[in-house]
Amino acid sequence: MNNIGSTHFKPAIGYLRRSTDRQEQSIGDQRRVIETYAVNNGYDLLNYYTDDAISGASSEGRAAFLQLIQDAKQRDCPFQFVLVYDIKRFGRVDNDEAGYYRYQLRRNGVEIIYVSENFNGDDTDDLLRPVKQWQARQELKDLSKVTIRGLLSRADGGWWVGGIPPYGYDLGYYDGSGQYLCTVRFMGNGSKQVLDRDGNITRTVPKGERLQFTKRDKSRLVLGHPDRIKLIKQIFDWYVLEGIGYKGIADRLNKAGVPTPMGGRRRTSKEAKWCATTIMSILQNPVYTGDMVWNRLSFAKFHKISDGRAVQTRNFPGHGPSRNGQEDWIVHRNNHPAIVTRLRFDQVQKRREATAKFGYANTHNVGRGASSPY
After folding, report:
1. Residue ranges of the domains in the chain?
2. Structure pTM?
């Protein structure tokens, strides 16, 4: 919350939200409109609650919004009004969820004011508000379909569809005509190195900053730093040739002081360590054989990909990923340079299947895992 002084008489707070840094109504734009409305209509604007770069598809994860609701329930709550730019900024939630939070505010004497919606201030608002809320939600669902169509188009060409590439690979970028642009390497501290065709670093993009490309530019997996490639091969060999389990490999890497793939990307602690789940995800990822395999997991809020098209999902937004059946995977064989042979990958999968029947703990067959009762 940000304090701002005022001499008006109706105590209010402002709620600001945007989903991404490319949102049309920026935080600054919303704030200016709210402050102008407050001055013109006699509101004492006390504070702001801000959710920046947070999706409005669900109220889960919107820390400032949830704090606003909790503060409104306090006996000494200092505000009686919530000023928000429009219904979309309040949240692109469905009518049930929106009504649930509006009711909580109202029963505690707090009214929501949508400053750019031009409601009439009478009973007709009860008819118009749910319609506008439905429209806000529907726009998000329609965008979901459009996004999936774009992802499918890229996947059909074997292009990378987004996200951080698997450890050992970089992303090679190409323009709409197929001309090479640059290579991007994701570093453990969250920064990104931009390389030229000869592998020289031309710039470094700090953690949290976006590297800009046009909508026509595309990327595909290319081999990464030689040390990372060597490490991936070593992990596969340790598992097959020496019989070391997930935990044992992680322990060996930690003792050697090898930086983790995520490093300080999600934490600032110097204690970031390799763990068994990281090793397991590497060993079962067919991308290392040169195959581009996509849609193994679904993070869908409204639509997922099934039978090569977008179908509506029944998952509640924000409940995490779900595994898709192998029939829905999108596979392009020999799509990019391989790091391990298909023979070595198949050997790993056979051993994984053989040890799976004894439970996850039985793959921890060296180090503390060999004697730990847990």
Report:
1. 10-118, 161-224, 225-291+333-370
2. 0.63
